[in-house]
């Protein structure tokens, strides 16, 4: 899950699950789209602050998927304030 929520929303990254479903390792898809496997690992584990649009496009085409297949917008519970 992306660590910096905005107005109670964040991203849940699901690339790892998608790769498993499609039968790819992180290294295989990295080679296929011309990215370092460490970058793919960071995308899959929500460690990358900014997803390059070029990486997203290449992932969509190679995996025949949509943005929702790679990451989902989710609401996060706001910490309650104590008075």
TrEMBL record:
One GO molecular-function entry: DNA binding
Occurrences of domain HTH cro/C1-type (ranges): 22-70
Pfam family, one: HTH_26
Ranges that cross the membrane: none
InterPro entries according to UniProt: Cro/C1-type_HTH, Lambda_DNA-bd_dom_sf
Coiled-coil positions: none
Name listed for the protein in its UniProt record: Helix-turn-helix transcriptional regulator
Organism for this UniProt entry: Polycladospora coralii
């Amino acid at each position: 899950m992306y660590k910096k929520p905005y107005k109670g929303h964040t991203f849940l990254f699901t690339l790892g699950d998608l790769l498993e479903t499609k039968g790819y390792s992180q290294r295989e898809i990295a080679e296929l789209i011309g990215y370092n496997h460490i970058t793919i690992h960071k995308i899959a584990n929500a460690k990358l602050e900014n997803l390059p649009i070029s990486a997203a496009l290449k992932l969509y085409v190679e995996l025949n998927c949509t943005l929702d297949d790679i990451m989902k917008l989710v609401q996060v519970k706001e910490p309650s304030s104590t008075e």
